[in-house]
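User: Some background: our group keeps a shared notebook of sequences we're curious about, and every so often someone picks one and asks for a predicted structure to add to the entry. Today it's my turn. The entry only has the sequence so far, pasted here. Could you supply the structure so I can complete it?
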Amino acid sequence: MLKRIAVAVLVLGAVAAAYWWQGERRADGEPLTLYGNVDIREVRLGFRVGGRLAEMYFEEGDRVEAGVLLAALDDKPYREALRAAKARVGIAEARLTLVRAGSRPEEIERAEANVAEARAALRNAEQELQRQRGLDERGLTAKSSVDQAAARADEAAARLQAAEEALALARAGFRDEEITAAEAELELARAEAAIAATDVGDPRLYAPSAGTLITRIREPGAILGPGEPVYTLSLDEPVWVRAYVAEPDLGRVAPGMQARVHTDTAGRSYRAQVGFVSPRAEFTPKTVETATARTDLVYRVRIVVTEPDSGLRQGMPVTVTFDGGME
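Assistant: Of course. Here's the predicted structure to add to the notebook entry:
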């Protein structure tokens, strides 16, 4: 019995040693090598606003620096819109000044004169009514004359009341609600002017980053809609390599590891660093994997080139080797 136990222990020990030796050979053997393709970011450039394309300053293949003017639209409609918006701001400012200041002294004086005139007219109408009533009592006038005098007196009283109300409004000025409305109108006019000022700058297209123009899509004279592309720009940076690591080697790659990217052109190589290891397997079988099938899974790896140059082109096949170090 003891002999059988001893044999079993020896067998298990041998198996464990074999697994350990395989792991050590993987870790201490040849450096990990991956194969991938260069991936360079491209941007389709267009105007935020629409209009007639006036100028295209570069051709396909030209290299441009960040901030360089690439193209321009006819900006006349936007300049005219800005002038109109500024004029509306001026009108709104004048309106607000008016309502805040209230009525002018001349307007108040005119309202006071209207009140005085209405009072005098009322006195005359009341005197005429009294005279007509006295004549009526002595039988010297018709009843209709008294009625007409009473109507004129009532009309004069109504006119006096209207004049006094107009004078009160002139002295009080505009209501708070009217002032608030005028302030809101001014704020709206200023916002519209700010939008118009932004639109004046939008008809000019600048390079967002340094790079090479891959395509020139439109030509001067074309009518463009907002966002319609006119150039395709291939950026100088960032440049990375898209590669895949097999599942058994997944533990040998980690973000921050130093690497070398090798091309087939005269043996050139570039310093690089692992920037991303996908947490999700790709090319996964549709069915549940067996232990053997799991070794066929691969994971996408992004290796960022530290100092790229024109020797790296979109889609170029490259070889990536690792030294295992972390930056």
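Suggested note for the entry: Residues 1-28, 284-291 have pLDDT under 50 and may be disordered. The first strand starts at residue 33 and ends at 46.
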